[in-house]
Amino acid sequence: MSDSYQTSLIETSQLFLDPENPRLTSVQANGHDAIRAMTKVQGDRVLALAEHLLENGANPTSLMMVMPSENDADMFCVLDGNRRLTALKLLESPLLAEGILTRKSLQMLKRLSDQFERTPITRLNCVVFANRAEADPWIQLTHRGLNKGAGMLAWDGQVGARYDECRKGHRDIGLQLLDFVKEQESLSEDTQRKIEEGKFPITTLNRLLSTPYVRKKLGIDKEKEDVLFLFPQNEVAKGLSRVVEELASGDITVSDLKKQDQRIDYINKFESDELPASHSALPQPTSLKQLNAQPVVTQNSSSQESSDTTDKSDANGSNSVGVDAVPMGGTQGQSRSQSSTFPNRKTLIPRSCRISISQKRIHDLFKELKRLDLTDFSNAGAVMLRVFIELSVDHFVEVKLGWDERQTDNSKLKHKISSVAQFLEDEEIMTRNELAPIRKAATGDGMLAASVKSMNQYVHNRYFSPVASELVVIWDDFQVFIQKIWEVVE
Predict the structure, then answer these.
(1) DSSP type of residue 43
(2) Residue 457, in any domain of the structure
(3) Are residues 139 and 185 in the same domain?
(4) Both 163 and 247 in a single domain?
(5) pTM higher than 0.70, yes or no?
(6) Contacts of 270 (CB under 8 A, 6+ apart)
């Protein structure tokens, strides 16, 4: 560790900009040219810095780094802090920015200069290094970003919002709803981790919530800094949980939601069972602060009755009714024919389905199947479904059962499914009754047998045309089985 530096209080008149500053595109001949070049590069940002210096003074936690001038023993070259020195020089002599800043900005600078003249900053605490090499490690630590964890880590939107909440008492709307969903919904591990690490894109969520139509569809509104619920918590959680998952995963980014019509199109793609049921509206809007915590009724639980009658309204006022499918392995092995309920969604995998998948290609397939519109792409959906299920099973038998690549490749899908089912039963992860329809499918017997046969036909028979509704049924038959596979692997 080097000790060839010291802290010293130096007159600003003894400081000059580094002519080799990396922010400048070329080496400057003198201090005057360097200030003008920096002003041109920074524009109004240097004006904002000047205003901050005037209001708060020099930053006591970040000292300028300087080294003695090679030509004048009384002068110091600023190695780090050139923007701050530029702002101070402009406050002293605003005419240096003439012809660079806009007329309006120059007028503002002159007003700031008048104030600065009354309370000038004439001396600065600086860290004096012997030469550039001695200062270089600290300069890189400041300006090279995270630097594997050693450098400065800028706050992202979520961390900044929490700071504002603690420091200024400002309660961010998006942050309130993010915390609500986190407490009320069973989010995926990846999403939970992003929230815990402060990496959730809160500014994008706030952008989405800035559109009144979107808030209405989600069953919420706002009044100043208060979030108002128009429906019970479990109803509001349905749509918000999908929003949070898709923003966290990167499936939806700020580019997808920049314009209001994009935000409206996005929310209109939600299925009826992903939005509040119209009949469950609260008598009057209620502040989130006033609502008592209630357990959320999820898609596969006893909320079936309310979701069956969900009223979905789009921007043009049209309505459609959606019905949830009964998943494989439902209550006491209830079959689809017994329940006579069929899914009414466009995507093969419901958006509410959450599976943590670390293997990238299989994870990408899962995400695509949650977004693929089967009304337009049933053939693609059929082939992708077969590939996704088989790759999931292949990954399981290799990781958990110790199969080698040759054994995996030479085994038929039905044999691999049977082996996985036996493992899940032996480990008491699924019951014999829950696995019965899966085993019958694998052995060519029972209601699900057609599912495995159909998946083979999707890939190998050019005359076999998949039907969108049948694809959805096949997935619903296998969903719990696939979820358990990945829970065990992960």
Answers:
(1) T
(2) yes
(3) no
(4) yes
(5) no
(6) 217, 239, 242, 312, 351
Q: What is the distance between the alpha carbons of residues 304 and 324, in angstroms, rounded to a whole number? A: 7
Q: Are residues 12 and 71 in the same domain?
A: yes
- Give the helix/strand (H/E) hosting 161: helix 157-168
pLDDT tens for each residue of 449-475: 444 445 555 555 555 566 777 788 888
Do 302 and 369 lie in a common domain? no
Domain end, chosen from 114, 149, 184, is at: 149
Assigned token pair, 418? 């049977």
pLDDT bin (cut points 50, 70, 90) of residue 391 is very high
Q: CA distances (Å), 90 to each of 36, 53, 125, in order?
A: 9, 12, 19
Domain assignment present for residue 27? The answer is yes
Residues 6+ apart with CB under 8 A from 201: 156, 157, 158, 247, 248, 253, 254
Please give the share of the chain, as a percent, with pLDDT higher than 90: 38
pLDDT single digits (tens) 108-165: 999 999 999 999 999 999 999 999 889 888 888 776 655 555 655 554 555 555 555 5
**Is 404 within the bounds of a domain?**
yes
Give the DSSP H/E element, type plus range, for residue 229. Answer: strand 226-229
Tokens 């240097």 locate to 46
Same domain, 79 and 176: no
Query: pLDDT grade, residue 325 (50/70/90)?
Result: very low
Domain closes at, from 249, 279, 314? 314
Q: Are 242 and 181 in contact (CB under 8 A)?
A: no
Same domain (yes/no): 418, 377: yes
Please tell me the distance from the alpha carbon of residue 84 to that of residue 17, in angstroms, as a whole number.
Answer: 10
Q: Which residues pair with 286 in a beta bridge?
A: 229
Six-digit token pair at 133? 């090499």
Give the Cα separation of 483 and 479 in Å (integer): 6
For residues 91 and 35, is the Cβ–Cβ distance under 8 A? Answer: no
Question: Residue 400: pLDDT above 60?
Answer: yes
Q: How many degrees, rounded to 5, is the angle at CA 25 between CA 108 and CA 78? A: 70
Question: How many separate domains does the chain show?
Answer: 3
Q: Are residues 178 and 97 in the same domain?
A: no
The rounded distance, in Å, linking the Cα atoms of 462 and 365 is 22
Do the strands 64-68 and 123-129 form a parallel or antiparallel pair, or are they unpaired?
Answer: parallel
Residues 104 and 224 in one domain: no
List the alpha helices (DSSP H) in 357-467: 360-371, 378-399, 405-410, 413-426, 432-442, 449-460
pLDDT band at 446 (very low <50, low <70, confident <90, very high): very low
Residue for token pair 């109004």 = 44
Range of the domain at 417: 360-489
260 within domain boundaries: yes
| 253-269 residue pLDDT tens | 999 999 999 999 999 99
